[in-house]
Amino acid sequence: MEAINIYTCAYCQDESCKKEKPDNYPTNCPTLEKEEFEKIKKIYDEDDNKKFAKISAIVESSGYCKNTRLEEIIDFAKRSGYKKLGIAFCIGLKKEAKILSSVLKHNGFEPNSVVCKNGNIPKEFIDIEEEEKICPNEYETMCNPIGQAMFMNKAKTDLNIILGLCIGHDSLFIKYSEAPVTVFATKDRVLGHNAMVALYQADSYYKEKLYKEKD
After folding, report:
1. Into how many domains does the chain fold?
2. Strand, coil or helix: 149
3. Which of 39, 128, 184, 211 is deepest in the core (most CB within 10 A)?
4. What's the number of CA atoms in the CB half-sphere (13 Å) around residue 202?
């Protein structure tokens, strides 16, 4: 049976992968897997992967600590020659989706926006019980990220943007989207859609929640 590697880059102290002359790789560092990297480098030569990666790097350096995420998306799309952009958004962020669509249109793009509740499919379709609803004994429409992806595919978008889709729904959207996907905002109703706050307060305010005692 083939051994499964466990990678722990999050705990690395040396960051030798950033150095011109690496000096100290951990034994389980992925950078040590030379054969795997030869395969990976070949993939960059497939399709437009190298162009995609190059533009990404240029967008990063040209706007480093100057441009907002929205400005970077606009810059990336323009450098890539993309025209039709998709916005897959949560119905709770309809106002924000309208503003985003307006900004993209002003910058010369053709935005397509599809809401999460498209199709008006009741939650019973995915076997949700009454007690599993947000508001039991009331009609609730399920989120339909596969539908969002399919309609973006039908519109033949060049790049799709996720705006606040729920956890899991974003994964399904990415899975079925034919165009590349980027994230403008993640869903976090508690933290105003700024999910990183939980990490910044992991040793203080959220410590009790995030580091619960194991049963």
Report:
1. 2
2. helix
3. 184
4. 7
pLDDT at 3: 63
pLDDT of residue 213: 82
| Least confident among 45-49, 58-62, 90-94 | 45-49
Confidence tier at 207 by pLDDT (50, 70, 90): very high
Q: Coil, helix or strand for 84?
A: strand
- 46 and 112 co-located in one domain: no
pTM: 0.92
Same domain membership, residue 166 and residue 62: no
Quick one: DSSP state of residue 89?
A: E
Largest CA distance in the chain: 64
**159 lies in which domain range?**
82-215
Q: Which of 116, 98, 101, 117 is nearest to 157 (CA)?
A: 101
